[in-house]
Design goal:
By secondary structure, the protein is of the alpha/beta class. The chain folds into two domains: about 5-245, Dihydropteroate synthase-like (TIM Barrel), CATH 3.20.20.20; about 255-345, 2-Layer Sandwich (Sulfite Reductase Hemoprotein, domain 1), CATH 3.30.413.10. The chain has twelve helices and 15 strands. It has helices spanning about 35-45, 60-70, 85-90, 105-120, 135-140, 145-160, 175-185, 205-220, 235-245, 270-280, 300, 330-345, and strands spanning about 5-10, 10-15, 20-25, 50-55, 75-80, 95-100, 125-130, 165-170, 195, 225, 255-260, 290, 310-315, 315-320, 325-330.
């Protein structure tokens, strides 16, 4: 979206004028290809366009082959240390490989580049604060944004010297500010950029950290694909990524929800209704704005820009469209009517 270059990962374009691509990573054991494929399918149905899979050792080779063969979306192999695994992943048919040049020798990087050029497979250079080159870490004393940028710039220069430019870049840190500062520097390199805050934490903390870092950078012209890193089910990574893109108007097929925080005027259970609405919207891929308001007097007016909304009071639910009341009744009945209106929306 922000880079002028486009790199194809399988059939998925990253960069150029293409929309931001959502991706995730499996947390199953790669050698258990059935569980891994099950998770990939769940991620794909949820909205993942690309999925990364760890390739920790050669024992996973046969399993990775099956994963690549039966996956509904392109597979990226995540490699550390062993250049032979990177070459194996390319030979297997992975759509992209992710490596950190900081833990692979220049000689072995050259071997990876040679095979990637032959097979026309893109490479993500992934630099993060936990695995910087020793000399760079010594120079800066800690994994600062300048250290991260120097590391990736050196790697890019090496790849270009070898005649390889089918690159996606990422510089990640668990420190949101350093992550932002480092990624802003990537503008000068003009390659597609993969965004994410690494080791961000659990669902709440990790979602907040990633939302801050990813949103800021996308709104400032940096970023072409995103992965929300969470210490939780990767399904939540997709949920959070979709909400981030929708909130900054960079996605057109994700519902938006406006919900009242409630106060003493509230006379019906906004929280439980909002949760029911969220459940209904889980598998909805429409650009629809939904409101759940706590005040029957002001609710429709306050949410008049919502496409569909629910409010209520004294045990009665109210369904409205574009600020106009269309149905009143018991809240369970109004929720059913809401679902029916939602199905009709956009047709």
């Amino acid at each position: 979206m922000n880079s002028k270059r486009t790199v194809y990962v399988g059939n998925i374009p990253i960069g150029g004028k293409h929309p931001v691509v959502i991706q995730s990573m499996t947390n199953t054991k790669t050698e258990d290809y059935k569980s891994t494929l099950e998770q990939i399918n769940n991620l794909y149905r949820k909205g993942a366009q690309i999925v990364r899979v760890s390739y920790p050792d050669i024992k996973c080779k046969d399993s990775l082959k099956k994963i690549v063969k039966y996956s509904p979306c392109p597979i990226i192999a995540d490699i550390h240390f062993d250049y032979k695994l990177a070459i194996s992943a390319i030979d297997i048919g992975c759509a992209k490989i992710r490596i950190n040049p900081g833990n692979i020798s220049k000689r072995n990087l050259s071997e990876i580049i040679k095979v990637a050029k032959e097979k026309d497979v893109p490479i993500r250079i992934g630099v993060n604060g936990g695995s910087l080159e020793k000399e760079i870490l010594k120079k800066y004393n800690y994994p600062s944004s300048d250290a991260l940028f120097e590391s990736i710039k050196k790697s890019v220069e090496f790849f270009l010297d070898k005649g390889f430019d089918k690159l996606v870049l990422s510089v990640k840190s668990s420190d949101v500010i350093e992550m932002i500062k480092a990624n802003l520097k990537l503008k000068e390199l003009n390659f597609p950029v993969h965004l994410g805050v690494t080791e961000a934490g659990g669902l709440l903390r990790g979602s907040i950290k990633n939302s801050i870092g990813i949103s800021y950078l996308l709104l400032n012209g940096v970023g072409d694909t995103i992965r929300v890193s969470l210490s939780d089910s990767p399904i939540y990574e997709i949920d959070t990524a979709k909400i981030i893109l929708s909130s900054i108007h960079m996605s057109s097929n994700v519902p938006d929800v406006i919900a009242c925080p409630t106060c003493s005027r509230t006379t019906f259970d906004v929280v439980s209704v909002q949760k029911e609405v969220e459940k209904i919207l889980e598998n909805v891929n429409k650009n629809v704005k939904v409101a759940v308001m706590g005040c029957v007097v002001n609710g429709p007016g306050e949410a008049k820009d919502a496409d569909i909304g629910i409010t209520g009071g004294q045990g009665i639910g109210v369904l409205f469209k574009k600020g106009e009341i269309i149905k009143k009744g018991p809240i369970d009945e109004v929720l059913k009517n809401f679902y029916e209106e939602l199905k009709k929306y956009g047709k």
